[in-house]
Design a protein that fits this description.
The complex is a heterodimer of chains A (111) and B (114). Chain A is mainly β. Chain A has no helices and eleven strands. In chain A, strands 2, 4, 5, 9, 10 and 11 form a six-stranded mixed sheet that branches. The radius of gyration of chain A is 13 Å and the shape is globular. In chain B, strands 2, 4, 5, 6, 9, 10 and 11 form a seven-stranded mixed sheet that branches. Chain B has no helices and eleven strands. Classes of the chains: A mainly beta (111), B mainly beta (114). Chains A and B meet through strand 4, strand 5 and strand 10 of A and strand 4, strand 5, strand 9 and strand 10 of B.
Amino acid sequence: QKEVEQNSGPLSVPEGAIASLNCTYSDRVSQSFFWYRQYSGKSPELIMSIYSNGDKEDGRFTAQLNKASQYVSLLIRDSQPSDSATYLCAVNPGNTGKLIFGQGTTLQVKP
Amino acid sequence: GAGVSQSPSNKVTEKGKDVELRCDPISGHTALYWYRQSLGQGLEFLIYFQGNSAPDKSGLPSDRFSAERTGGSVSTLTIQRTQQEDSAVYLCASSLAARGNEQFFGPGTRLTVL
């Protein structure tokens, strides 16, 4: 079992729709969770961090965390073609410095 | 302010040569991380520094890989006797402190070993 799992996609949504990206993790003691966006040929860009159960909203983005189910999600409201990218889920396992990344989900927003 | 910077942006080398990759973190960030990203392996952790010490080197693939950080700032990742499987994008990130802090990535160094 991979430590951090994501559906590779592609996930295709029409412009203006809600995109829902999901991630599961295996280490129960993980405390910190992050979503990065990566455009083709570019480095990952941090878009959300979440540390507590529940929802965290930032503009069009909402991160959701459920530690009991070991599940993290990212919702993108009013999706735009410029949101088309690969979204990486990252987990900080235990009490270490490193991040463990999922393989990423490719999102395509069609005009 | 300035983000994480890395140099060179691209490096092409011959198999068996040594290479040095440089990372300059965001000013004031005490933690610095090295990752690499390749098509088959995704984004994988290599090593991180808190200050000048490296509490976790568990991701270094072999003893050909080493890294150092001096003055709590710039870090150098050295790959000796490069192999074709070392070809990847090497990414550096920094954070205010380790352990759960948000990490911000530099633009990466694309290494190609011929």
